[in-house]
Amino acid sequence: GETVAAVTGGGEAETARHKREEKWMWKIGGLAVGQS
Question: pTM higher than 0.70 for the full model?
Answer without folding.
Answer: no
